[in-house]
Amino acid sequence: MTAVLLLAALAAGAAAGRYWMHPAAAAGGASVETAPVHRNGLIPLEPFVVNLAGNPASQFLRITVQLVVPEEEALELKEDDVAKMRVRAEILDVLTQQTASVLVTSEGKAELRKVLRERASHALGKAKVVDVLFTDFLVQF
């Protein structure tokens, strides 16, 4: 009886080990080594606080932005302070041209995200920004 329990425990342990080491292969799918890996890296930027265009001049935006880039480019960019400053300058240029009435709409945020993605990609040169994430977004009227 003890031998049967020992064999069952060993078989369960082997199956669990195989699952944790190669979950796709254990499920009957493609092996982990042959499956294409699409990872993205995040480039966090310091928060922005800018005065918005339009009247009254007391309207401002506080926003925190993270750039999504391919992982291999993220490793390089996280260490490149000059590239980050170029991106910050481009983003500041775009943000100060915005108006509060446009930014509070979902269409305004979507358009801002698109413009920031294009301008950030341009500022970085070879690196392509895949997406722009807003992790903090406050418009003060």
Count of discrete domains: 2
Rg over CA atoms: 24 Å
Stretches where pLDDT is under 50 for at least 5 consecutive residues are 3-7, 22-26, 30-38
CATH topology of the largest domain: Tetrahydropterin Synthase, Chain A
CATH class of the largest domain: Alpha Beta
State the secondary-structure class. Answer: alpha+beta
Q: What is the number of helices?
A: 6
Succession of helices and strands: HHEEEHHHHE
**Tertiary shape:** elongated
Strand content: 15-25%
Identify the CATH architecture of the largest domain: 2-Layer Sandwich
| Helix-residue proportion | 40-55%
Q: Major sheet, described briefly?
A: 4 strands, antiparallel
How many distinct beta strands? 4
Tell me briefly what this model is.
Helix content is 49%, strand content 21%.
